[in-house]
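W.,

You were right to be curious about this one. When I first looked at the sequence I had no strong expectations either way, so I just let the prediction run and decided to look at it fresh. Below is the sequence, 171 residues in total, followed by the output.
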Amino acid sequence: RRTGVLALICILLSSLASGCYARFLVRPIQTMQSVVGRIARGDLSARAVIHTGDEVELLADAFNAMAGSLLQRDTILGSVRSAAQQFLAATDWRTVADEVLSRIGRAAEISRACVFENHAGPDGGLVSSERFEYAAASQWRLIDTPTLRDLPWYGTGLEGWAECLKQGRVF
């Protein structure tokens, strides 16, 4: 009779321990499932916080990196959409260029973006000058640098680029 009671207690304790261990193993997967659902519904800021020290944590870290990339891509696409709307609504694209560069630069998390304009130089040759610039807060603005004005396309190593542009090709 004692053996039977002892066996029953051992079975109950084993069942309880197994249940707790199973819950410990399943909880990170349930967390991942919840975060995947949030991402699927459009919440690209959702992140899985899992500290198990095993493959599930590695999977969560990889998933979080992917979600971060998706969020950045979505932010960049939103800034490009906004830029297109601003350019289409403006009577002169130059009036919105600074704002557009700034929005896209911040979204893409870049340090600098410039727009150069081609024009005839003093001697009638093709030159280019910086007209608009986005510089991150940690960067110096270069737009007022005299060396970025009236840059000749020919005789400076930019001939290949000039020829590509003439032919409508991308360089």
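Here's what jumped out at me. The chain has a mean pLDDT of 90. And, maybe more interesting for your project: DSSP finds four helices and three strands in the chain.

Coffee later to discuss?

I.
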